[in-house]
Structure formats: C-alpha cells, structure tokens
Amino acid sequence: SLKSIPAYLPIVNIDTDMIIPKQFLKTIKRTGLGKSLFFDMRYDDNGNEIKDFTLNREPYNKSKILLAGKNFGCGSSREHAPWGLQDWGFDAIISSKFADIFKLNSINIGLVPIETTEENMDILFDKVNLNSNVEINISINEKKVTCEELEFDFVIDNFSQNRILNGIDKIDISLDYSNMIEEFKENRSTWMPKLTD
Q: Would you tell me which of 11, 84, 185, 190 could form a disulfide with 33, CB atoms 3.0–4.6 Å apart?
C-alpha cells in the first residue's frame, strides 16, 4: 500500500516531452532523470527553480503520488518519462486518462498508473487545494484509493498487479521459463535446417 500527500498538476495533455525534455534522452540509465523531471516548468531560463511550481514547494517536493490532468503521458513513447517520474520518487500517478504506451511503460517498471473518473479527479484536486496536508491511501492488493471520505476502486489486470506487488520485471518473467529455454536450446539442432555450400 502507498500513503502520501499528493503533488498535483491539473494540466490536460501533459506529454512525454514536458515530463522529460528531449535534451535529457541521451542516457539509457534509469537513474538521475528525476532532477530533469518537468524541467521547462520547474526552472527558469537561468536554471533557477520557479518557486510556485508544485514540485519545488513543500510538502509536494516529497510526494510519492502525483495527481495529473487528463491524457497524461501522451506524445512520444519514450521510456525516460516514467523513469524520470520514478527516479523523482513517485510510486503512483492518478489521472482520468493515460496514453496507452505510457501506461504500459509505467507498469513495466512498477510505477502504478491509476485511472478514475474526471469527477473523482475534481474532488481530489479540490481537496489538495483546500488542505496541503491531505493524504491519499492506495491499496494495490484491494485496487482501492481512499482520500478522506472519497473512496474508489481502480482497474488493473491481475498479471500487472502481481508484477507490481512482487517487483517482477520482464527479465524475471523470462527467467521463470529458463528450463524451457535451455531445453529449446539443446534440441534446436535436431530440427534446424542444415546449411549447405
């Protein structure tokens, strides 16, 4: 389960270039991208933090949960976007709609994308605006979000839920089939076509 004061970005159509601008795509490492998260919104032209941007303010700069506007993660399919969000410290994002590729890229690294209704998002945004210390509770086991009197279920398939709960990535999934892979490798020569000169 996750519990945190949420950061909030009630902006529609935040694309992956806004999340991690193109100049930070030179790395293939998943670490160190958090400092460049929402770079053009967080810093001015001189590289100074913009004081009133959510992630530059207490207590939101330590949030584990991000409330985001509709169609979050649209644009290009860059994996750096969820990498940057996770490297910053986010464990979950709640929005009324995610771009499909962004959603899958998030699940692949254990970042939980939670979709709910626009009505629920409006309530959550209102709560954060009224009380900067309001907390959100997320139960991955129960697929449930709670914030004061607001409670709603979210949809995540059982396979993805299991991956997130157990920290399983694609390599772990492949290793579950290591015996079958070895057997295939050993028997491959029996059915492979023979090369001729």
A: 84
